[in-house]
Amino acid sequence: MKVIGLCGGSGSGKGTVARLLMKYGIFTVDTDAVYHNITSHKSECLDALVAAFGEQILSKSGGLDRKRLSEIVFSGDNAAMRRAELNKIAHKYVLKATREKIAAFEASGAAAVTVDAPLLFESGFDSECDAVLAVLADENSRIARIMRRDGVTERDAVLRIRSQLPDEYLREKADYVIENNGTPCDLLSGVEEVAAKILND
The pTM is what? Predict the structure, then answer.
């Protein structure tokens, strides 16, 4: 089974591409969903995050208040250091759960699986992939998508984008690239082309 790392900055359209790839029998492990699942209730991961950032990151229900944590790690002095600490903690637990999901897909006989990982290279998981697919989009489109999706200000959207790896880096590292600046039909055409390459290469 082929494991394809799916990367791209926030607002690039990775999630949409992942859903479209499923039409071709290429399943997806969404690491953001994995992270949400393991921090929605008391867990080793959530305990480690609380130890690092305080109980203020907990919601009333006892899970992770992701908006509050985001406010802490993406702004203010030493934001880069706090993001590094967050990533160090989260990656350990997310990668463990991701590997378990990949093993389950392989056991089911799947031909390929993508791992939707915004921090594919930062986590080091790219070394466990057979190839990398990058989804790229211009900054204005990404800002608009982030604001609409997450209900944040333009400033917050820009800060999030600037904290991530630049498109030039992802383009250089990727084996496949999908440009998501056109119409839905354009995107579907790009996904179809890449899906064929993944399954036939």
Answer: 0.81
